[in-house]
């Protein structure tokens, strides 16, 4: 599966934090290009993660997983379950990016554990050559830039073989730098990260909290944008309805 974004087709995704298959089923019919199951901040276990990836695949919607870290135990369940790719948080340097590749890719790129008798191997139906090639060539690996150090090495991170895209985590970037999220200093760091990403040939994306903000990011060259989350959409819709009724 190739990434759902390209230079000619920017893509919209959203975070999924509620570990319920029905949420994936609902979001798959909204026109979003992909979903990211949030294993860093959500409450997923391997069973719910696997089921939700299966539901997304059944609807033809790429399901990525934001993992909590890049240790084998963090990434293996999502990879075996057939995730379209991984978002890996806090990739602060090229050295960390190489370590991420080491645990997420098969040899010779890395040392990911192999088992074709999983959904990723179509339950043993894929021959070994195809299974290994798919894991290295078709699983999209996204490095999240979330610190000033990461911004400073963005171009070097993008050059690491096995990294397919970078994601500029604006909120964590501001928090890690000790500046106001959304403020002028935070925006300046995002612009700096964008400039370094443009210097490479790698796809990059960011996060928006409204449709208009997403449009601004796409206008600045982002290949993909994360807009909201399941819980944000639910909460905002209820608040708006209650406000309208009690107007």
Structural notes for this entry:
This protein has a single domain, classed as Alpha-Beta Barrel (TIM Barrel). The chain is built from 11 helices and 8 strands. It is of the alpha/beta class and 247 residues long. It has an 8-stranded parallel beta barrel, surrounded by 7 helices. Helices cover 44% and strands 17% of the residues.
Q: What is the H level of CATH, i.e. the homologous superfamily?
A: Phosphoenolpyruvate-binding domains
Proper CATH architecture: Alpha-Beta Barrel
CATH fold naming: TIM Barrel
Structural class: alpha/beta
CATH class: Alpha Beta
Keywords:
single chain; 247 residues; 11 helices; alpha/beta; TIM Barrel
Quick description:
The chain has helices spanning 21-27, 46-58, 72-80, 94-104, 128-137, 148-152, 154-158, 170-177, 184-198, 211-219, 230-246, and strands at 11-16, 34-38, 63-66, 85-88, 140-145, 165-168, 203-208, 224-229. By secondary structure, it is an alpha/beta fold. It has one domain (11-246): Alpha-Beta Barrel (TIM Barrel).
Helices and strands in order, then pairings?
Elements: E1 11-16, H1 21-27, E2 34-38, H2 46-58, E3 63-66, H3 72-80, E4 85-88, H4 94-104, H5 128-137, E5 140-145, H6 148-152, H7 154-158, E6 165-168, H8 170-177, H9 184-198, E7 203-208, H10 211-219, E8 224-229, H11 230-246
Parallel strand pairs: 1-2, 1-8, 2-3, 3-4, 4-5, 5-6, 6-7, 7-8
Helix pairs in contact: 1-2, 8-9
């Amino acid at each position: 599966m190739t990434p759902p974004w390209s230079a000619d087709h920017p893509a919209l995704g959203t975070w999924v934090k509620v570990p319920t298959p029905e949420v994936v089923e609902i979001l798959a019919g909204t026109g979003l290009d992909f979903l990211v199951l949030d294993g860093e901040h959500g409450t997923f276990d391997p069973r719910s993660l696997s089921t939700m990836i299966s539901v997304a695949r059944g609807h033809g919607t790429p399901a990525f997983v934001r993992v909590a870290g890049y240790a084998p135990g963090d990434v293996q369940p999502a990879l075996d379950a057939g995730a379209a790719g991984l978002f890996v948080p806090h990739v602060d340097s090229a050295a960390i990016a190489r370590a991420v590749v080491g645990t997420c890719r098969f040899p010779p790129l890395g040392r990911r554990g192999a088992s074709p008798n999983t959904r990723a191997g179509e339950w043993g139906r894929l021959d070994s050559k195809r299974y290994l090639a798919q894991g290295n060539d078709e699983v999209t690996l996204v490095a999240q830039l979330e610190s000033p150090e990461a911004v400073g090495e963005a171009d070097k991170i993008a050059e690491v073989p096995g990294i397919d895209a970078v994601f500029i985590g604006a909120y964590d970037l501001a928090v890690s730098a000790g500046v106001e999220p959304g403020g002028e200093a935070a925006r300046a760091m995002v612009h700096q990260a964008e400039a370094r990403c443009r210097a490479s040939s790698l796809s990059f994306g960011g996060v928006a909290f409204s449709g208009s903000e997403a449009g601004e990011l796409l206008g600045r060259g982002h290949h993909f944008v994360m807009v909201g989350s399941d819980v944000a959409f639910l909460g905002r819709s209820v608040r708006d309805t209650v406000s309208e009724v009690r107007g």
